[in-house]
Amino acid sequence: MWRGILVFLLLVLPSAVDARPRQINPIPFAHEPCSVLDGRPCTPYYCSPLEPGPCIPEIDYPYGQNLQLTIQSVPPEADRAKYQKPDHDLDTIGDLFAELRSCWSPPSENARGGTQMSVRFSFNRNGGLIGPPRLTYATAGIPADTRTAYLDAIKSSLNACLPLKFTDGLGGALAGRPIAIRYVDNRDLGK
For the chain, N or C: smaller number of CB within 10 Å? Predict the structure, then answer.
């Protein structure tokens, strides 16, 4: 009897697995998800064989998984509107980025054209910083006093804008998420 049940299950299960709907493609005109054994291009996806349902490809959202922003000392003409401080509570990531861009004030002493620095930090729900910004990159070969001047300018620019006025929804979504900002001093300093 057990042998009969086992044979029945082995015959029924493969047809039930094949009855599942095919992979869903949320990105129009993209390649379908596939296996590493397929000989065609694949859309990257992440799932587990233990998850129910089909694997959905990872969608390339405009801001990505981590929040990254580049701020230039002299914004290009096409991006001037992105450097205007919003006149309302910050409700979107675009509003946050505009506020952070409007806060930037590059150093006047020990400045060096072409200098780039990146910092990483997080906000709390009330718009304050969780700890000081951490330096993650500085242009190679710049003197220590120039590096210190830029880092101090970054910290003072951020502190001058704090606390940011988040809406409840944005404050809850951003709380604790790392934000990376790359500051680019593209001024013509004649040095």
Answer: N
Distance CA 121, CA 128 (A): 11
Helix (H) or strand (E) holding 144: helix 144-161
CA–CA dist 120, 102 (Å, integer): 18
| Secondary structure tally for the chain: helices H, strands E | 4, 4
Tens place of pLDDT per residue across the chain (191 aa): 788 887 777 776 655 554 545 555 454 444 455 555 655 555 555 566 666 655 555 544 455 557 899 999 999 888 888 888 999 999 999 999 999 999 999 998 888 888 999 999 999 999 999 989 999 999 999 999 999 999 999 999 999 999 999 999 999 988 889 999 999 999 887 65
Query: By the 8 A CB rule, do 57 and 25 touch?
Result: yes
Number of C-beta neighbours around residue 161 at 10 A:
15
Quote the Cα angle for 107-108-111, to 5°. 70
Is the separation of the CB atoms in 67 and 178 below 8 Å?
Answer: yes
Fill in the DSSP letter of residue 68: E
Q: Which of 126, 103, 107 is nearest to 115 (CA)?
A: 107
pTM of the model: 0.65
Structure tokens at 85: 């401080």
Closest CA to 104 of 166, 159, 143: 159
